[in-house]
Write a structure and sequence with these properties.
The structure is a single chain. With about 160 residues, this protein is mainly beta. About 15% of the residues lie in helices and about 45% in strands.
C-alpha cells in the first residue's frame, strides 16, 4: 500500500510539473521603431520561446486603436502584407517576429512612437493565456533592439 501511495505521489508531481510548464512562455527583446510625427501605423517585434507547443492568437495595445499579427513578403519586387490568424510557437524553438517577416502591426497610433520610451503590449496565447510585455521604442530605422547586434535583419531590397 505504501508503494502505491509513493507511485501516486510521484505521478502527481510529474503531472504538476507538466501543467506548470504550459504557462512558462518567455517573451523577450520586444521592440518597435520610432515613427515620424504624423505616422498612423507602426510595428512591433519580439521573440517567443515556450517549453510546450502553443499558438499566439492575438495582440492588443493601448498605444494603437488596432494591433494585429501580419506577415510581409516580397513577390516580384512588390511588398505584400497579409493579416495572420495566429502564429504557431513550436516547443523549445524561438519564434522571432522581425522586420521583413512576421510582425505585429499597430494601426491608428494614438501618438507617435518616440525613441527611448516604451508601451505595453498584451499577447494572448491559446494555452498560456495572456502575457503583457513592455515594448522598447528604438530609433527610426533600427533593425533590432539596442545592444542586440545579432538580431539585425536586412530589409528586402526595393526595386
Amino acid at each position: 500500500m505504501m508503494l502505491k501511495s509513493m507511485i501516486f505521489a510521484g505521478c502527481l508531481l510529474i503531472a504538476g510539473a507538466a501543467l506548470a510548464q504550459t504557462g512558462q512562455i518567455d517573451v523577450k527583446d520586444a521592440w518597435a521603431r520610432a515613427t515620424p510625427g504624423k505616422a498612423e501605423n507602426g510595428a512591433a517585434y519580439l521573440t517567443i520561446v515556450s517549453p510546450t507547443a502553443d499558438r499566439l492568437l492575438s495582440v492588443t495595445s493601448p498605444a494603437a486603436k488596432k494591433a494585429g499579427l501580419h506577415s510581409m513578403t516580397m513577390d516580384g519586387g512588390v511588398m505584400k502584407m497579409r493579416p495572420l490568424a495566429g502564429v504557431d510557437v513550436p516547443a523549445n524553438e524561438p519564434v522571432t517576429l522581425k522586420p521583413g517577416g512576421t510582425h505585429i502591426m499597430l494601426q491608428g497610433l494614438n501618438e507617435p512612437l518616440q525613441a527611448g520610451k516604451s508601451f505595453p503590449l498584451t499577447l494572448t496565447f491559446e494555452k498560456a493565456g495572456q502575457r503583457e510585455v513592455d515594448v522598447a521604442v528604438e530609433k527610426p530605422g533600427a533593425m533590432g533592439p539596442e545592444g542586440h547586434a545579432g538580431m539585425q535583419m536586412p530589409m528586402p531590397a526595393h526595386r
